[in-house]
Amino acid sequence: MNKLLNRMTFRTKILSALLIITLVLSGLSLLLVQSIKDVNQVSLELRDQGVPAVILLSHWERELFNKEQLIYETLSADSCCDIVDQYNEIMTSNQLEINLADVPDSLRTLAREMDLLDFLIRNELQGFLNFDDMESAERFLEETYLEELHYLQDEVDLHQVINYQEVQNKSMEFTHIIETSLALLTIVTIIAIIASIYISYRISNGLTLPMELLIKKVNRIAYGQYGLTFQNTNNQVELDELTNSINQMSLKLKESFETIINDKQYREQIVNSLPIGMMTIDHESSQISLNKAAQRLLGEEARFLADVSSIPNTSRNKKFWDILKSEKVCENRKVSFENGKEQRFFLVSQSILHDVEGVMIGRIFHFNDITETEQLEQRIHQSEKLAVIGEMAAGAAHEIRNPLAVIHGFLLLMNQSLSSEEQIQYRMPLLMKELERINFIIEEMLLLAKPSAPHFKTCFLDDVINEIIPLMKQKIESENVNIDVDLQRVPLELDAKQIKQVFYNLIRNSSESMNNQGTIHIYSEINEGQYDIYIVDYGCGIPKENQPYIFEPFSTFKENGTGLGLTIVKRIIQNHHGDIELQSSSEKGTTFRVRFPMKEG
After folding, report:
1. Most buried residue, 49, 215, 224, 383, by CB count within 10 Å?
2. Using CA atoms, how far apart are residues 464 and 506, in angstroms rounded to an integer?
3. Does residue 157 share a domain with residue 70?
4. CA–CA separation, 189 vs 182, rounded Å?
5. Are 488 and 581 within one domain?
6. Residue 429's pLDDT is what?
């Protein structure tokens, strides 16, 4: 039954419900017609039986009463001569034109007895009067006629009571038929109303519940659950096509959404894969979007860039942020940017962002990291500068070295020929020391002018440093310097001779900064395939204003320094594919970090 109902359309269900209600009401109308027929039948019975009986009995009652009065008057007057005529006058005045065939069946016997009573007067009483037998006539009236008349009166009264009861029964039957019809009408009406409400509820429920479920699931699709499908659980015919259409729509939306998302992710991946930092500023919302390169290059400051109002308003990186705040188009402006301890250089450009119709919808701010290029230019400039200086130094060194050799030779001869008192008198030790210092400067100048290519061999750095420590002890004026070496024993590709020069210069600088007393710590760390060596002293430190220039030639803050030591150190380390940097420097000490690439495998 349920399957049959589910296969029916809403139109069929409604028409079926209307047909059932119509049939019920038609049956009710037939019952009402039958009730009307019953009422009509009772009316006919009253018309044909009850009413004539009432009229006839009332007539007979009056007639018998009149006849009784006539008899009593006659007997009291003792005159029976004209009784028959008076009797006939009563009959004539009270005559009711009715045939015996029209008399109800229940009164036909009484009607014959009434006729028989008249017959007694007209025949027997008239016979006594014809013979002037008044005594027999009076006796006949008293004994026979009055007795018969009283009997008929009793019968008439009895029939009146019976007839009244029958009429009352017929009236009750009217009421019963009407009450039954009204009760039936009420019951059928209530049943029809309840059935209508139930059918309407079932039909509407069969429509509204699935529609509510459809609406809820369509809302879920509208809120992003693309690809959500559902079935017509009540198998309603009209909803099958609607359900299929919504399922197809959901699947199509999912496909379209996935296509859009894939396309968006592909484009975002392209933008994020670019090494160029890009920021887009929406014209209406003022929101700022950054690609991964921009987030990486800006560092911590990128976390706070949500919209234009969040752009920093500080003196730090002011040129960079001023360009971003402005809406002016610019191209390839070089600005510096400090990100923590690191300073970088960006090549900044800004252009207008238009939609497909050419309407301005925002700006594109992009910047290239040219720090390496800038450093390379500085290195090239430094190399050119070193080359010029080297050529000058080489020429000067050769010109100075020849006469210096002659002076050195004569001073050695003089030093050997003079006594100890004369050596002190003529300051021979000081002359020999200063001559040795001049020779060391010349060697540094020649090394700066013509640096030899390193000859790489596998060696251990701790062995190299341990070889130069005794030499350092001999040349350091004070023996109060302690060199603490704690290096991890890792094989490296190095030129041992050049590396000795590097650490000789670094240890000598640290010792001089501590006034040749204290401890120098040398230790190592391994970080991501790099071998890092830290040289830590507890000297006076390097002035902050001189720190950016310590690796430039002839840059020194020491009274007797040449400004070539760290320049040579950096050049040797770079030739070893390494790097050196000043980690920290203050009044409490200085830390240099030397980095060498580790040997692969």
Report:
1. 49
2. 14
3. yes
4. 10
5. yes
6. 77
Sort 404 into a burial class: Cβ within 10 Å, 0-12 / 13-18 / 19+: middle
Show the 3-state SS of 296-339. Answer: HHHHHHHHHCCEHHHCCCCCCCHHHHHHHHCCCCEEEEEEEEEE
**CB count in 10 Å sphere of residue 181:** 18
- Highest average pLDDT, of 99-113, 244-258, 397-411, comes from 244-258
Residues 108 and 16 in one domain: yes
Statement to judge: residues 437 and 307 lie in one domain: no
Query: Per-residue pLDDT for 595 more than 90?
Result: yes
Taking only the tens place, the pLDDT of each residue in 108-136 is 787 788 778 777 777 777 777 777 777 77
Residue 356 shares a structural domain with residue 266: no
Say which range, 7-16, 206-215, 572-581, has the weakest mean pLDDT.
7-16
Quote the CA–CA distance of 214 and 206 in Å, as a whole number.
13
CA gap 100, 112 in Å, rounded: 9
Helical H segments across 78-145, by residue range: 83-93, 108-119, 126-130, 134-139
**Residues 139 and 164 grouped into a single domain:** yes
Supply the pLDDT for residue 341: 65
pLDDT, one tens digit per residue, over 40-82 is 666 666 555 566 777 777 877 888 888 788 778 777 776 666 6
- Say whether 586 sits in a helix, a strand or coil: strand
SS3 555: coil
CA gap 298, 337 in Å, rounded = 8
CA distance linking residue 226 with residue 254, whole number of Å: 5
Taking only the tens place, the pLDDT of each residue in 484-507 is: 899 999 999 998 888 888 888 888
Specify the pLDDT at position 531: 92
Count Cα neighbours of 513 within 13 Å in the Cβ-side half-sphere.
26
The per-residue pLDDT for 217 is: 77
Sign of the dihedral defined by the CA atoms of residues 537, 538, 539, 544, in that order: positive
**What is the pTM assigned to this prediction?**
0.41
Do residue 75 and residue 195 come from a single domain?
yes
Hey, which bits of 506-588 come out as E strands?
517-527, 530-537, 579-586
Q: How many domains does the chain have?
A: 5
Q: What is the pLDDT of residue 534?
A: 95
Tell which residue, 593, 581, 370, 596, has the closest CA to residue 492.
596
Q: Model confidence at 475, in pLDDT bands (50, 70, 90)?
A: low
Structural domain range at position 139:
2-207
Same domain, 183 and 264: no
From 189, 121, 114, select the one nearest 152 (Cα to Cα). 114
By the 8 A CB rule, do 291 and 272 touch?
yes
Q: What is the DSSP letter of 452?
A: P
**Burial 155-179, CB ≥16 within 10 A → b, else e:** bbeebbeebeebbeeeeebeeebee
Unique residue bearing structure tokens 């040579």: 568
